[in-house]
Specification:
- The chain is α/β, with parallel strands linked by helices.
- It is built from 22 helices and 18 strands.
- Helix 18 crosses helix 22.
Length: 501
């Protein structure tokens, strides 16, 4: 492969002969996206559940050469998608060496680079900027200033160079000019002050901005992308109308549509490997962990405007595995196999991930989380054991049987205690585990069956995890008719008596 051009003259020759293409950033991203589509490559690796919804809209925006914004609640991979756009840039691009705004050597913007080209001509040395240096991201906060984003006049630079403050060479560039020839991303756009948003749309549309009263012309070559929570428009701020009008496409993100999509995301993001012990997470535990997030998102006691991030099941699964790891270490077991009881032990990974409505505040975060876990267990249990007859288990408890099963019990001890329940182990083997499971895996399945019966209100459980028969609702008994003191006998025809109360 020939070496890239090293001087401005060599670059001109390569462009004129067609060896290199001279394109704007949006054209560059568009061409590379088209190449990936034709090759059938994955556009955004690691983004799950958006193939039929969000990704096609992003593709349309890029093909249209639009600046665009992603609107969605927290934990919907907005920032990850924006960062993945950098992979659509060329591997490297020619720039003026030492230039703060990565000037194109063939058409420099800043006065210093233009002067250098005039003096040295085609002998000017050029540099090559890698794609990872062409992505600039800023988290919008209310204290961000126009100097941070656009730039400011530097009096020290002016004094050292003997220049007037109005001279372009006294400019200290902000983040947006430094993203020239690349992608500039702003997260949580509504948090940005209105006057800063004005500066953004002005430099995007007209290519100029006023700094300290001096007009500065900056026709930047940059693709701008944003993210925002739609509820933040009224909660913390809003996007000003002129800026919204200049954003080409508005794309809505969403949470996983199915439990299995969520499980795939959680498995991808969660830290599940532990150094000294093997980790075996039963499928039903993964389903329950994911169902907790789905139940929380539809619970009326949880604020829908805030949302329930996908970080909830990720953190929850990590904490569940850690509780099982602690039990395995204390019990000297060879493998870490989480149980449903470990999910209840992982409440700290749940309660900080949602905001409560008034009714939820009255109940308390811990109580709401426990009820959500119970509903999640019931939903998964009902799906797996829909065709299984487990009435004999209820009969055993109805006959006075009780079980004490703490979440710290070793697998062998748990199986020993539960062996007295007729048919319990046989039903547990139908929970999607192997025909000859290990003791820890069978113990996890047994715990799942007990928690499932509890979730379906077939049995009850105390706080110290003692299972017993569910209390049967008592039917109101009709009292025997009695005569009250107000009853009186009235003479009737045929010597019949009639009483009135």
């Amino acid at each position: 492969m020939p070496s890239p051009p090293a001087t401005l003259g060599q670059l001109r020759s390569a462009v004129s002969t067609g060896t290199l293409k001279r394109r704007t950033v949006k054209e560059e991203i568009r061409d590379n996206l088209i190449a990936r589509l034709r090759a059938g490559e994955t556009l955004f690796p690691g983004i799950i559940g958006y193939d039929e919804t969000v990704v096609p809209q992003i593709v349309n925006a890029v093909l249209s050469r639009h600046n665009f914004i992603l609107l969605g609640l927290r934990g919907q991979a907005k920032s990850r998608i924006l960062r993945a756009l950098a992979d659509l840039l060329d591997a490297e691009v020619a720039v003026m060496p030492g230039c703060e705004i990565h000037d194109d050597p063939l058409e420099p913007l800043c006065a210093a680079c233009r002067a250098r080209v005039r003096q040295e001509g085609d002998a000017v040395q050029i540099a090559w900027l890698p794609r990872e240096a062409r992505y600039v991201e800023k988290l919008a906060t209310p204290d961000v200033t126009i100097a941070d984003i656009i730039g400011d006049l530097d009096p020290i630079k002016a004094a050292r160079s003997g220049l007037q403050l109005s001279d372009e060479l006294t400019m200290h560039y902000g983040l947006l000019p430094r993203a020239n020839r690349g992608i500039f991303a702003i997260n949580e756009l509504p948090d940005l002050a209105g006057k800063i948003q004005v500066g953004l749309f002005n430099i995007l549309q007209e290519g100029d901005v006023q700094i300290k009263g001096y007009p500065v012309r900056l026709p930047l070559d940059v693709m701008m992308v944003f993210s925002a929570n739609p509820e933040d428009y009224t909660a913390r701020g809003k996007i000003i109308t002129p800026l919204k009008d200049r954003i080409g496409s508005e794309i809505r993100t969403h949470y996983p549509a199915t439990r299995h999509e969520g499980m795939a995301i959680t498995a991808q993001e969660a830290w599940m490997t532990r150094t000294d012990l093997d980790v075996v997470v039963p499928e039903f535990v993964c389903e329950i962990v994911e169902e907790v997030a789905f139940q929380a998102r539809q619970d009326s006691r949880i604020d829908k405007r805030s949302g329930v991030s996908q970080r909830l099941p990720i953190s929850l699964l990590e904490n569940v595995i850690s509780n099982a790891e602690r039990r395995a270490i204390l019990s000297s077991e060879p493998a870490v196999v989480p149980r449903v009881s470990d999910i209840y032990a992982a409440l700290p990974a749940i309660t900080g991930k949602f905001e409560l409505e008034y009714e939820g505040e009255l109940r308390g975060a811990d109580n709401v989380a426990r009820e959500i876990i119970r509903n999640a267990v019931g939903a998964v249990f009902g799906g797996i054991f829909a065709a299984v007859e487990y009435g004999q288990l209820g009969d055993w408890f109805d006959m006075g049987g009780t079980l004490q099963v703490e979440d710290t019990l070793p697998a062998a001890e748990l199986l020993k205690r539960t062996a007295v329940v007729q048919g319990l182990h046989d039903i547990a083997r139908k929970a999607g585990i192997s025909a000859r499971p290990s003791e820890p895996l069978l113990a996890s399945a047994v715990d799942f069956v007990l928690e499932g019966l509890y979730a379906h209100k077939k049995i009850t459980r105390s706080e110290d995890r003692q299972y017993q028969a569910a209390e049967q609702p008592r039917r109101p008994q009709r009292a025997a008719p009695t005569e009250s003191l107000l009853e009186r006998e009235l003479p009737m025809a045929g010597n019949k008596k009639k009483y009135y109360n």
